[in-house]
Amino acid sequence: MDLMNKCGSSKRDAENEERHSKITGESVDFSAEKQALTRVTPGNIVALEPGQIFVFGSNEAGLHLGGAARTARERFGAVFGQGVGLQGQSYAIPTMNLSLPVINGYVQDFIQFADRHPELTFLVTRVGCGIAGFRDEDIAPLFAPARNLPNIHLPPSSGRC
Questions:
Q1: Which of 93, 57, 61 minimizes the C-alpha distance to 80?
Q2: How many structural domains comprise the chain?
Q3: How far apart are CA 134 and CA 120, in angstroms?
C-alpha cells in the first residue's frame, strides 16, 4: 500500500468514526496516533485561517526569493532579511546550504516553539525538499518529535500519515 492510499484511508476512517458519533450519539475515542494520521498539511496552501502558521524552508539570510519561502513572503508575512522563526503568519526554518545536523537544530527549535504555542496551528511544508535539494527521507526523521504535538501538521511525505 503506498503512502497516499494509506493517508486517504486513515482520513476516511477518522471521518467515518466522527460521522458515526454524530449519528449514534456515541462518543468516539480518538487515540493520539489516530489524530496524528489526520494532521496532514495540504499540498498547495494559498490562504490561511486566523491562528494558522505556514512553516517553510528558508536560508539563514532570509532572502525568501523562491519556492515556499517566496510564497511565505508574498502571502503570509515572511520578512525579507529574517531567516529564522515566526514572522507574520509564517515560520522560517533555515535549510539552504546547511548540513542535516544544523537543520535539525533549527527543526528542534521550531518544535519547542510550537509546543509553547498550542493556540497556533503549524502547517509544515516539505521543508528543505525543494530548492535546498534534500529528499523527504532526509528531512522527515528530524520532525519525528512533532508527531505527538496536536498543533503541528506535517506533509504526507513526512511519514506521519
A1: 61
A2: 2
A3: 27
